[in-house]
Design brief:
Keywords: Ligase. GO terms for molecular function: acid-thiol ligase activity. It comes from Puniceibacterium sediminis. InterPro entries: AMP-bd_C, AMP-bd_C_sf, AMP-binding_CS, AMP-dep_synth/lig_dom, ATP-dep_AMP-bd_enzyme. α2 packs antiparallel against α3 and α7 packs across α9. α4 links the parallel β3 and β4. It contains 18 helices and 27 strands. It has 538 residues and is of the alpha/beta class. The protein folds into three domains: 126 residues, Rossmann fold; 163 residues, 3-Layer(aba) Sandwich (Rossmann fold); 101 residues, GMP Synthetase, Chain A, domain 3 (2-Layer Sandwich). The strands form seven sheets. The protein has a nine-stranded mixed beta sheet, with helices on both faces. A five-stranded parallel beta sheet has the order 4-3-5-8-9, sandwiched between helices. The protein has a four-stranded antiparallel beta sheet with strand order 19-20-21-22.
């Protein structure tokens, strides 16, 4: 079995320890601490369930012992594909306490992705709900266990049928192992998967706890905070920026939303006194529009975080008028580096940038395509290394050769501009740039202009092969009400005094956009759809 590792060079590891970034904390010790310090406080709210920290820890410890009694051993991997319910937190904390390594899958993943995660991670067990959002996970698990020899155990929350019920795992916490090495791998996260199937990202106790501890501090979390997990809890953004793990590090309450829909979340914000929530940009824009109509009571909400993809400045400006709270932009990646606008930053920073790094030891390098550093204010490729950025993917030599430099910098694939104070403005993914007759155009820049149009609800710009230009631009526009004429949009964009080559060559109107498992716009899907439609007409 190929055990996950994430070695940091000795000189850098020593520097991170000396700086106090790495404190030798582990997740099992973190669970014990919050149970001791905040035992009577409510740890999690989900549906009609409300667990205190003491109850959550007790459940997790009994489950952990049950997992080991079942035949799993510290170091084994367990794939977790669970919705936003309290039992998900119970399972994750149980795996940590047992010395087992969670491997996270999103509820929307299906056979192709799940089989990939199980095989690549060598997972011996798989944890699922019986049903979630109308999908029965048990036939999927049945198929996978029949076809993957390494999958030995399936654990089900709910009606287990022939599998193992989570409630049946009720062992003696006295049998739990000693805490792991803080530099050992704590879990395997999944990459964004912008090309092919997602890669697996080994995160250590030391590096990840540093990230969530500092995120909780930057975001002002206290034991009185109430964090709304509206996005899937397995997503890195929802886990650690500051996410539910950062909230629980601070002893705060985590409120789980079964869906991110405005009506569901607005009610939870009102009823549970939610103080901070996190969304991806399309959902944030949906909340903004819904709030104008529904006029909800959001008086407790102090901060709306928006991340996972660039939040256009025109959309960011709408948050406070519509929702009555501060917006905080978050730009990060499951591989490590996370940037935040700080609470209280000037409006132009909050709406116009994606923040600055967590750590003074986050090394950020911005280069041209030849690898040469570019001056601040110039777009370039973002490379980074630091105390919570990985040095290698799990069991993927080809990806490691592409993604990391010889001196350990991670090639993020993002195009950014660094401004005063180290704040980064995302121009897009390297693959989201359009090379039109030699002119490099940022798709995000065009989208930002389109979103300022009063008749545009959302917009995505993609490149299309063109025999004369090399590539031309096409804007998919989701209108707000009746769609304007494309010529009117082009004329309006020209009046904004931008270069003519940035005005979309083609504009198509759509009712909505295909999204990824966490609600991001899938540009890959839109490009494929457009190219297919062109081929049909040619």
């Amino acid at each position: 079995m190929n055990h996950p590792v994430q070695p940091f060079p000795a000189d850098r590891a020593a520097r991170y320890r000396a700086a106090g970034h790495w404190r030798g904390e582990t997740f099992p010790a973190l669970l014990r601490r919050v149970a001791d310090e905040d035992g009577d406080r409510i740890a999690v709210v989900g549906g009609t369930t409300r667990w205190s920290y003491a109850e959550m820890a007790a459940r997790a410890h009994r489950t952990a012992a049950g997992l080991l009694a079942m035949g799993l051993h510290p170091g084994d991997r367990v794939l977790v594909q669970m919705p936003n319910i309290p039992e998900t937190l119970q399972v994750v904390w149980a795996l940590f306490a047992a010395g087992l390594l969670p491997v996270y899958a999103l509820p929307a993943h299906r056979r192709t992705e799940v089989a990939h995660f199980l095989t690549r991670s060598d997972a011996r067990a798989y944890v699922i709900p019986d049903r979630a959002d109308g999908f029965d996970y048990r036939p999927l698990a049945r198929d996978l266990r029949a076809n993957l020899s390494g999958l030995e155990h399936v654990i089900v929350v709910g009606e287990a049928e022939e599998f193992i019920a989570l409630d049946a795992l009720n062992g003696d916490p006295a049998t739990l192992p000693a805490d792991p090495d803080p530099q050992s791998v704590a879990f395997l996260q999944i990459s964004g998967g912008s090309t092919g199937l997602s890669k697996l990202i080994p995160r250590t106790h030391d590096d990840y706890i540093y990230s969530l501890r500092e995120s909780a501090r930057i975001c002002g979390l206290t034991p009185d905070s109430r964090y709304l997990a509206a996005l899937p809890v397995a997503h890195n953004f929802t886990m650690s920026s500051p996410g539910w793990l950062g909230a629980q590090y601070a002893g705060a309450t985590v409120v789980l939303a079964p869906r991110p829909a405005p009506d569901v979340c607005f009610r939870l914000i009102r009823d549970e006194g939610v103080t901070i929530a996190a969304l991806v940009p399309p959902l944030a824009m949906l909340w903004i529009d819904a709030a104008r109509i529904m006029k909800p009571d959001l008086s407790s909400l102090a901060v709306l975080q928006v991340g996972g993809a660039k939040f256009p400045s025109e959309a960011a400006k709408r948050v406070r008028p519509a929702l009555g709270c501060e917006v905080q932009q978050v730009f990060g990646m499951a591989e490590g580096l996370v940037n935040y606008t700080r609470l209280g930053d000037p409006d132009d920073i909050v709406t116009g940038t994606q923040g600055r790094p967590i750590s003074p030891d986050d090394e950020v390098m911005i280069t041209d395509d030849a690898g040469h550093p570019v001056p601040d204010g110039t777009p370039g490729n973002l490379l980074t290394r630091g105390p919570y950025t990985i040095n290698a993917y799990h069991n993927d030599a080809a990806a490691n050769a592409r993604s990391f430099t010889a001196d350990g910098f991670y090639r993020t694939g993002d195009i950014v501009v660094r401004g005063p104070g180290g704040y980064l403005t995302v121009q897009g993914r390297a693959t989201d740039h359009i090379n039109r007759a030699g002119e490099k155009i940022s798709a995000e820049e065009i989208e930002d202009h389109l979103l300022a149009h009063p008749a545009v609800f959302d917009a995505v710009v993609v490149s299309v092969p063109d025999p004369a230009l090399g590539e031309r631009s096409c804007a998919f526009v989701q209108p707000r009400g009746e769609a304007p004429k494309p010529t009117a949009i082009r004329r309006w964009m020209a009046e904004r005094e931008i270069a003519a080559f940035k005005i979309p060559d083609e504009i198509r109107f759509v009712d909505g956009f295909a999204t990824t498992a966490v609600g991001k716009i899938s540009r890959k899907e839109l490009r494929a759809r457009l190219r297919a439609s062109i081929e049909e007409l040619s």
